[in-house]
From TrEMBL:
Protein name: Glutamine--fructose-6-phosphate aminotransferase [isomerizing]
InterPro entries linked: GATase_2_dom, GFAT, GFAT_N, GlmS/AgaS_SIS, GlmS/FrlB_SIS, Ntn_hydrolases_N, SIS_dom, SIS_dom_sf
EC number: 2.6.1.16
Subunit organization: Homodimer.
Record Pfam families: GATase_6, SIS
Protein's gene: glmS
Glutamine amidotransferase type-2 domain span: 2-221
The organism of origin for this protein: Alitiscatomonas aceti
Amino acid sequence: MCGIIGFAGNTEAVPILLDGLERLEYRGYDSAGVAVASPEGRLQVKKCKGRLGVLREALAAQKPLTGQVGIGHTRWATHGEPNDVNAHPHVSQSGKLAVVHNGIIENYMEIKQSLLHKGVVFASDTDTEVIVQLLEYYYKKSSNLMDAVYEVLNRIKGAYAMGILCSDFPEQLIAVRKDAPLLIGYGADGNYIASDVTALLAHTRTVTYMEDDEVAVVTADHVQILGRDGCFLEKEKHQIQWDVSAAEKGGYAHFMLKEIMEQPEAVRRTIQPRLADGEIVFEELEDERDLMKGISRIYLVACGSAYHVGMIGKYALERLLGIPVEACLASEFRYSGPLLGESALVIVISQSGETLDSMAALREAKRRGSKVLSIVNVMGSSIARESDHVLYTWAGPEIAVATTKAYTTQTVLLLMLGVYLARRLDRIGNGEYQEIVRELHGLHERIGMVLKNLELYQKTAARYFNHDSVFYIGRNQDYALGMEGSLKLKEISYIHSESYAAGELKHGTISLIEPGTLVVALAVYEPLVEKMRSNIVEVRSRGAEVVAVTTEENRDMIGSQASEVFVIPKVHTLLQPVLGVVPLQLFAYYIALNRGCDIDKPRNLAKSVTVE
Ligand code: G6P
């Protein structure tokens, strides 16, 4: 959730830290801070509540923090309200040690109590401060910094990625991780640590992913990585394919709009390499011809929008494969007694590949003998590395907190996987298969057509942005689409919104429909369009204003009942959600724009959720 950057090099650290924090701000933006070691061994810290801009201004207004080794942090508050004191870096009582941390230390209260008894004075309410005070306690005892770091790791429980500075070793920083992402970057001017590769793209694309329980000592010319037992490790270096412009706004007002507009290209990148000679090909699964052998059920496990992708997948895969498929919220999965084992295939869907609940579900599935296949966007992320098989979406970096292109590419990839498996199992007719393959070839162009109607979405949003409650209704995969449309709207515009299976509304919630209530009706799923029409009539006759989404074929039938209609091209029913979501994204975007919301960084949210 929080963003971490660290630098040890031959040039001033602060500009590099601030630039890295700017690129990491989507991971959390309650407060930000930096700590720099001066060459003579003095730790200088500046941290402020609020966005990074506040920190920048505060730094500009004072004597510069000079030094070539430093750590920085942008925070999404868990323990302790967002204020200056609770902002990271946290400093030990003597001022010798500073720590930035992402994650949660679960036993921090117990450790804090014991340190309080020993006379340690705490400044903040955070779990993180416990780490730095404990480190100082052990360091004083042993006078050996690395021994003290290991003592701390033995004592703390929970998830963490950390950067540590010590004034006795002003030329180095120490990095540690467990269940939270951290990587090391090798640049021309020095070496880096970061919680996210986007923070490093301007400096290097050569990285090493740290694994759980590893400790790294980073200086300007050296990186040493040690295992939990203190042994040196030889770690692989990876080359990142993304370039820095992919993580910049490129003239768009917001990353969200840029990423919506990038969808044709992102979806093309997901699909094209997997189509060859009229077939869907997954090279990643070539060695696993028997992936489905003995599999009697599938769990699709994810959080947030990725869970909504799972809901679409449930309808599609169940029909295609003829076995039970369940979409599960990752935060519930391991507590709900899933029927795991060799006969269950678990598909984890995650843009970041770092979401803690999804990761925990993955581990539980593996522990209980199930094979795990993941659909991930970020290469080398934890979920990708721990899965038995990984299918990358290749959507490029997604910066806006509200996901768009990751969602569409995940959807298309999951649907392609379903069709591919159905083909292997001989469960899909040749005609239907060929039709889907043909439509996959042109799907990105169809998305481009939906994106042409910007004016209509803008105009409709201008008409409805003042509503304070919006319902989304749909049936079958349109219900899943409504879930995503509703989430998009509420997360960026702060309008209360609910999504209902259209047939369910009359079992209670219809009581909330009154003259003027806005209902977004999804009538895209061809087999149930007529039933949706009846549901639209039901809410209309109670005074609702209806904005409908439907296909060209049904424009008249649905449009005649709606105040406004967004029309999308007709494709094979299975692929229809990939187009259906686009007007919903833009509708939410323009509503939020009209309301003057901070679209890329909505309140209380963070893009990558690495706490439970
Ligand atoms: C956060 C993001 C959502 C995302 C969810 C799962 O809540 O704001 O956009 O869908 O996490 O993230 P993941 O990286 O696992 O797809």
